[in-house]
Amino acid sequence: MLADGLVFSFGTFGFPPLAARVVEFQAPGDGVPGRLSWTARQEGKPEERLDVLHVWLVEDLPGGRVRVLTQETQIGQPAAELAGQAPDPMLNGHQAWLDGLVRAASGGA
Predict the structure, then answer these.
(1) Cα separation of 61 and 45, whole Å?
(2) Among candidates 37, 30, 86, which has minimal Cα distance to 59?
(3) Which residues, 6 or more positions from 7, have their beta carbon under 8 angstroms from its beta carbon?
(4) Residue 105 vs residues 77, 88, 89, 95: alpha-carbon distances, Å
(5) CA 23/CA 65 separation, integer angstroms
(6) Which residue in 2, 42, 56, 90 has its CB near the most CB atoms, within 10 A?
(7) DSSP state of 16
(8) Using an 8 Å Cβ cutoff, are 70 and 91 in contact?
(9) Considering only CA atoms, which of 33, 21, 105, 39 is closest in space to residue 69?
(10) Using CA atoms, how far apart are residues 93 and 98, in angstroms rounded to an integer?
């Protein structure tokens, strides 16, 4: 279950598992969108350091629809190197996360 201060780890974009912490969690309520933000950090030499903040807003809409807005900021050389690639692996990876969320919410695997 998600909650403020929850610590977890995950691997993405070819990085080793990153230590992450939920810094904001608000469950959705009647007329109030849900909010989730987490931060992750990779320590190491300057060329390895990475500091990330990711924010999700989940909003119920009329007609049984849901809007998910997500925004992320990354600081560090590894993120800058990814941003310079074409096609953009960050953009494509985040779209894959959203596609997976839709599948899971629709009862898919």
Answers:
(1) 45
(2) 30
(3) 19, 20, 21, 22
(4) 35, 26, 24, 15
(5) 27
(6) 56
(7) P
(8) no
(9) 33
(10) 9
Identify the residue whose tokens are 């074409």.
86
Q: What is the pTM of this model?
A: 0.77
Of residues 13, 25, 11, the one with CA closest to residue 80 = 13
Cα 89 → chain centroid: 14
**What is residue 76's DSSP assignment?**
S
SS3 content of the chain, % helix, strand, coil (to 5): 25, 45, 30
Report whether 55 contacts 72 (CB < 8 A). yes
Sheet containing 65-75, strands listed edge to edge, beginning at the edge strand earlier in sequence: 7-10, 18-26, 34-42, 50-61, 65-75
Compute the half-sphere exposure of residue 51: CA atoms within 13 Å on the CB side of its CA. 4
Q: The tokens of 85 are what?
A: 């690639």
Q: Over its length of 109 residues, how does the chain's per-residue pLDDT go in tens digits?
A: 778 999 998 877 777 788 899 999 998 888 899 999 999 988 889 888 989 999 999 998 888 888 899 998 888 888 888 878 888 888 888 888 889 888 888 887 6
